[in-house]
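Entry 12.
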Amino acid sequence: RGKDEKYRVWMPKLRMAKEYKDKRKSIDNVERNIFKFKKSSEDKSKKMEKEEKLFRETFMYNKEIRVLATATAQRSVPSRRRADLPLAAGEQLDVIDAVQGHAVICRNAQGRYGYVLVEHLNFR
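Predicted 3D structure (C-alpha cells):
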C-alpha cells in the first residue's frame, strides 16, 4: 500500500431512492431550454385564439376584428350576463365595435370579449 491509501478514511456510499435516481437521470438527459418564454407565448396565443372563436360564435361576429379605440374603465363593474365583460377600475380595453345603443364590444388584456356600457369607459 502507498502512503496516501494508508490515511484515506473510508466513507460509506450513500444510497439514493430509485425514484430520485431515475428522476435525476431524466433531468440530466433532457436538453435544457434557455428560451422558456416561447412556450408561454404559444399557450397565450392558443388561449387568445380560443377566446376569439368563442367571441365569434357568441356574438355572431363575422367581420374583421379591428381596434377602433383604446379606453380605460372608470370603475369596477361585475358582469350580469354572459355577454357582458367584467371590468376592473383602471383596466385598459380595446374597443372593437360600436353597436346601437349605449354599449360597445370591447376586449380586455386577457383576450376576453364582451359588451361594456359607454358610461363606464374613459376615452383619451
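Annotation: The chain has a mean pLDDT of 79. The first strand starts at residue 69 and ends at 73.
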